[in-house]
């Protein structure tokens, strides 16, 4: 029994060494040298089969900013805030809001917008359910304060 285990262990070691050497060999006889990403060439368009007019393009794309992708929740919150801002501006133009109330409401609106953008930036342009509910409540409070201040 012991000789079977020893024999199989030695056979496995010998096979792994042979297979490792075969895979580690970089170039076999009669083959052209390999050019490509597997050998450290990180740009596409440099392979021998490509035409001379093919421009090289980086294999790694550029990252898009998190705010360029907007989820429907963020768009909804920002729309509600734009509506509230228009109401604040119209109340101020009609003379129903004084300068102190106007500045306070405008600051509230900016703070809610900054919170929404910060949450969306943290979560790759999306707003989680709990944060969305809190932001909607903040917008409702802002609307309530606009009505009470006018």
Structure report:
This protein is an all-alpha fold and 150 residues long. It has 4 helices and 2 strands, in the order H-E-E-H-H-H. Helix 2 packs antiparallel against helix 3 (99-122). The radius of gyration is 32 Å and the shape is rod-shaped. It starts with a helix and ends with a helix.
Largest sheet: 2 strands, antiparallel
Number of distinct beta strands: 2
How big a fraction of the residues is strand? Answer: under 5%
Strand order of the largest sheet: 1-2
Question: Helix/strand/pairing class, anyone?
Answer: mainly alpha
What's the N-to-C terminus distance?
A: 94 Å
- Please trace the helix and strand order, writing H or E for each element: HEEHHH
Instruction: Give Rg in angstroms.
Output: 32 Å
Helix content: 55-70%
Overall geometric form: rod-shaped
Number of helices: 4
Overall average pLDDT: 78
Contiguous low-pLDDT stretches (5 residues minimum) are: 62-69
List keywords for this structure.
single chain; two-stranded antiparallel ribbon; mainly alpha; 3% strand; 2 strands; rod-shaped; 150 residues
Write the layout of secondary structure elements.
Layout: H1 2-24, E1 43-44, E2 57-58, H2 72-93, H3 99-122, H4 129-149
Antiparallel strand pairs: 1-2
Helix pairs in contact: 2-3, 2-4, 3-4
Give a short overview.
The protein has 150 residues and is an all-alpha fold. It is built from four helices and two strands; from the N terminus they run αββααα.
